[in-house]
Amino acid sequence: PAMDYAVLAEAAAEKMGLYRRDPGGWRGCRRTSEVSVSWRPSAEFAGNAYRGEGIVPASPQDVWECIKPVAGGARTKWDQNVKDFEVVEAISDTVSVCRTTTPSAFMKIISPREFVDVVLIKQYEDGTMLSAATNVEHPLCPPQSNFVRGFNYPCGCFCIPLPGEPDRTQLLSFFQTDLGGYLPQTVVDSFFPASIAAFYSNLTKAVKALKV
Hints:
It comes from Rissa tridactyla (Black-legged kittiwake). This is STAR5 protein. This protein is of the alpha+beta class. It has one domain (3-123, 134-208): START domain (Alpha-D-Glucose-1,6-Bisphosphate, Chain A, domain 4). It has helices spanning 2-21, 60-67, 75-78, 185-211, and strands at residues 27-31, 36-41, 48-56, 84-90, 95-102, 113-123, 129-135, 148-149, 151-152, 155-162, 165-175, 177-178. The strands form two sheets. Strands 1, 2, 3, 4, 5, 6, 7, 8, 10 and 11 form a ten-stranded mixed β-sheet that branches. A two-stranded antiparallel ribbon has the order 9-12. Strand 10 (155-162) and strand 11 (165-175) form a beta hairpin. Helix 2 packs across helix 4 (185-211).
């Protein structure tokens, strides 16, 4: 029922707020000019939660334009980890159930995945935009044989305006994903930091292209 999806989405957004306010326990694992990535054991599942933080050289509106979770949005064009993104059911104007498919990755060691999530979009009084998500099941999305079903635990991206710097945006993102299947832990542990660094790098290129 629609109600349950909305409740799950709200809970994921609440968790993101808690993660944002709780900087403790994160251990740095990768740093580039665009992002610093850290991790800590996830409280949600038997893997790790990852945190990416960086400044994107564009306005919050432009950054949001590139990352917002909408059908036909920009993300399938620039995010190498998103092959296809579809809205399965719109629950309200801020909550939807979505299916994301990902291409094979890591020299094909990781085969194509599919994720079904409820996604919530939220705007805060200071202009911060949040997209939060968590895995759900949906009758229109039975598992498909040509994809491994993965699971996103509460995750999200905050686009945070920087006072007095209209052309720079702090992007704070949290990822905790069970890729499913039978992957060696070493593969999983090297995939995520590299993938988050690529996410920030490709996003930076995408916002620059928007401005041209």
